[in-house]
Here is the input.
Amino acid sequence: MSDAPPASSLFLVRHGLVDNPNELAYGHLPRFGLSAEGRQQADRAARWLSSHSIRAVFTSPLLRARQTADILRLTLGDVPLHRDRRLRESELARHWQGTVWSEIATLHADLYSMFESSPSEITVGETMTAMAARVVAACLSAHRRYPGAAVALVSHRDPIVALRLTLTSGDLDALNNTACRQGSVVVLRAEGRSLRFVEYVEP
Here is the structure.
């Protein structure tokens, strides 16, 4: 007789669009919250999730993710909310945060070129493999805490895509060619100690 928890449905939500009029790479910087459009994106994700009986919401500790999680719970009800730093933004993002996006390719030419063409080779901050592994760990922890339930987890583009690629093609260099729009949802199935990619949805 197996002691494994029953399978869970996990919904990885990318936070909504950020209010960023100066077009900075905001990375892990504080006070970068959602724009009006970002709030609408989060609301659309919440309405799509409302048919899935979400039992809990986990979120990255960064403001844009926390605000997205709060909007989800306005529709999903007063379900438990948990912060998990394993859902945080890429550690590479710390390297150029505060820089105007249009200047990154010049100020960080070699690293940005690698990020664009072969991100799997980057070791600054963390590797993509390590980033995917921490998101896997966060998902499996949520699965163990809410066995057999549906759970939403709010994170950021690079961590979500790194996980998705790890579970599918294994081609981490496809980071910048893999869809992950603000407010989108990656659906996973957790069973035992394994995760399976189910679908990508843009509500």
The radius of gyration is 17 Å.
